[in-house]
Structure formats: C-alpha cells, structure tokens
Amino acid sequence: MKDMLELIIKNLVDNPNDVSIVEKAEEKAVTYEVSVNKADMGKVIGKQGKMAKAIRSIIKAIAVKEHKKVNVEFVD
Predict the structure, then answer these.
(1) How far apart are CA 74 and CA 76, in angstroms?
(2) Which of 13, 34, 50, 59 is most solvent-facing, going by the fewest CB within 10 Å?
(3) φ and ψ at 66, to 5 degrees?
(4) Average per-residue pLDDT for the chain
(5) Can you tell me the distance from the alpha carbon of 22 to that of 41, in angstroms, rounded to the nearest whole number?
(6) 3-class DSSP state for residue 71?
(7) How does strand 70-75 pair with strand 20-25?
(8) Mutual orientation of helices 50-65 and 2-12 as an angle, nearest 10°?
(9) Quick one: pLDDT at residue 31?
C-alpha cells in the first residue's frame, strides 16, 4: 500500500526525489505522513483539497480490501 501511495505521489510532483513517506502503525490503523518539496505541495493538495481527497480515497479503497484502516496526512 505504501508503494502505491509513493507511485501516485511521485507521478504528480516535479521533484520525485524529495518525496518522503513515513509509515506509523498504530493499534487499529496505519498513518502515512507524506512530505514533498514545498514547490510541489500545491500539486499534491490540489484546488480546494480535491487531489488530496482523491489520493486518500484510492488508498482507503485499497485498505478496505486488506481489512485495514488507513490515514494519509500531508506534512511540511
């Protein structure tokens, strides 16, 4: 799942080498903290957060098949 998230993010940004995803496993959920180059943050979030919402929807759909709960956070 982390690989899929990384693939999606790296194809959106201009600086794919600056993409960093930290996986934090909790009791009932997994949280992915995504950080990108500051110049690419707008591309990842999108207008009114639509791109971020779409990314979260895709990852949550994958997680449902694996019977997991997933959160995706975009950090600076």
Answers:
(1) 7
(2) 50
(3) -95, 5
(4) 93
(5) 16
(6) strand
(7) unpaired
(8) 160
(9) 95
CB 40, CB 23: distance < 8 Å: no
Whole-number Å distance between alpha carbons of 75 and 21: 10
Q: How many CB atoms lie within 10 A of CB 21?
A: 16
How do the residues of the chain divide into helix, strand and coil, expressed in percent and rounded to 5?
55, 25, 20
Q: What is the pLDDT of residues 4-21, one digit of tens each?
A: 999 999 999 999 999 999
Token duo for residue 71: 């959160």
Helices (H), the chain: 2-12, 41-45, 50-65
Are the C-beta atoms of residues 36 and 15 closer than 8 Å to each other? yes
Task: Output the pTM of the full model.
Answer: 0.88
Judge whether 44 and 51 are in contact, CB under 8 Å: yes
pLDDT at 28: 85
Q: How many other C-beta atoms lie within 10 A of the C-beta of residue 40?
A: 17
